[in-house]
Amino acid sequence: MLVRIRFGRGTSVQRRNRKNARMAMAASTCGTLAAISCGTLGSWRLGQDLGWAGDFVFESGVLSHWQVWLSAAALLQYGAWRLARIGHLREQQAGALESPTESSAAATQVRAAANS
Question: What φ, ψ does residue 96 adopt, rounded to 5°?
Answer without folding.
Answer: -70, -35
